[in-house]
Amino acid sequence: MQTTSNGVPYEDHIVSPKGAQFILFPNSDHSKKDVDCAKRELRIMRDVVSIRVASLEDRIDKYRSQVYTHPKCKNLKWFQINDDRKIMLNYLRSNRSPEEYVEKEVLPNIEATENRLFKEHRTNIYNF
């Protein structure tokens, strides 16, 4: 993730030939002034089509992505990764890392997760 000069993390996604969408991920140390300065900097330095502060859904999606791309999940199939939104939200709200989620919620539960998803989706999980 990139950061502005005042340390506000952000993601950018090209959305058109006119530029990108920017999503800011300020943490509790960043003030409204910090966020406003970050927005101003991006508008000056980059081709901004839209800019916004990350919603809770954005933060969960980012966390989830970090779990799925974690090196210890590299050889796992999607149906072996415990992708429980409520648990991820609890980890996110308590500032626990994706690494900790992988260690405590994914790796010890690979077989149980696969069995649960197999019951829900039957053989469709293997045909994906």
Content of β-strand: 15-25%
Q: Given the structure, what is the number of helices?
A: 5
Contiguous low-pLDDT stretches (5 residues minimum) are none
Average predicted confidence as pLDDT = 94
Number of domains: 2
**Broad structural category:** alpha+beta
The main β sheet shows up as: 4 strands, mixed
Number of DSSP E strands:
4
CA-atom Rg in angstroms? 18 Å
Distance between the termini: 30 Å
Q: What topology, given as strand order, has the largest sheet?
A: 1-2-3-4
In terms of topology, how is this protein built?
Blueprint (H helix, E strand, L loop, with lengths): L1 E2 L5 E8 L2 E6 L7 H14 L2 E6 L2 H13 L16 H9 L4 H9 L3 H12 L7
Parallel strand pairs: 3-4
Antiparallel strand pairs: 1-2, 2-3
Helix pairs in contact: 2-3, 2-4
Description:
The protein has 5 helices and 4 strands. The chain is an alpha+beta fold and 128 residues long. It folds into 2 domains: 2-54, no CATH class; 57-125, no CATH class. A 4-stranded mixed β-sheet has the order 1-2-3-4, covered by helices on one side. Helix 2 packs across helix 4. The two termini are 30 Å apart. The model has no long low-confidence stretch (mean pLDDT 94).
